[in-house]
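Troubleshooting: if your tokenizer reports a length mismatch, compare against these two reference records.
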Amino acid sequence: GTSWTDIPIEITCRGPVRFAPGEQSAVFRKQVDLLRVYPNGESDQINGEMLAVHFGRRRDAAVPPGDSRQPTPAKARSPVAGLQPRRIEAQGHPVIVRAPSQDAQARGDRLEYDLQTGHIVLDGDQGTFLRQGNNEIHAPHLEYQLGQQGGLGQAAADGPGWIRAQLPGRTPQP
């Protein structure tokens, strides 16, 4: 499958941007739009008032012990060399997610998305919702684990809400 590191992302905002290499994070404020455009033209997007991208070191960026190759001096001095996105946090009233690559939409006041594991957390004072395909869940707090290759994942919800789901291989009932 395609990972988040395979497709470039573009982030725009109308407010300040704070990049903190020591904390390995970048925070964007005010009318933030994250866009991930695929080669076929479709795009996934997240919209909110604050978006934080937390980075981690690429596994291949480190030189193994005993390896005679050393990083170039320019790379050794750069605090961003070898960083890749690991986790995204977004806040807004609401945060809106549109992900045609996963046939999914989501809405809430706060979103956390672990790019490595595919684990999503949504919270909202007015409730949240997550829809993937014909399946939809509404609750104040949702946790969702993305399924393999766009398939249905696992969901957990806290608080009052409802769910509508279609079992694989079944046609929807009116």
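Reference record two:
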Amino acid sequence: DSLGELAAREEFPESWRVLLMSPNSNDAISGEREESWMSRLSPMPSEQSGELTRLVLTEILPALRGRDLNHFRDTAAAYGNLVGDYFAQVQGGRFANPDAAALVKHLESQGVRGVVQSSWGRTLGGFFAEAFQTDGFEVAVHPRVERARRWWLAFHHLLQRDEDIVTAKGRLAR
């Protein structure tokens, strides 16, 4: 099966950063477990895949091109939520990891916008215009993570090319 053609490619602004948060556990959904879950998924409704396409082409890409970080964050999170809702049929909720769901809920209660998730909701991310603009995010996330000691956090430049990733801040919690 063909995955299709690349519809667009856009570089992230040099000043944007991403804060990655990932659990310190080895409960990754991969291998046989992932194959089992994937085999139980019902086909994605065309309305849902259409909405995902619309979000990318008419919201996310234009926000990225226009360097509109707030709109980019909000629509990237909406995209991730729709995908997470689709996978809920096998993972039990929008996130496969209940701690991720609790952390996102906490961040949102603190006013953090646009938290996104990786596949199966294992790693969470938040986008920022500059590394120092993350102060509010750290205030919201760090105490909860520090208490739990189940997540690691790292600030990164956004990857433009494989060799470009640079860690700006290491582990905050183990």
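Descriptive notes for reference record two:
- The chain is about 45% helix and 15% strand.
- The mean pLDDT is 76.
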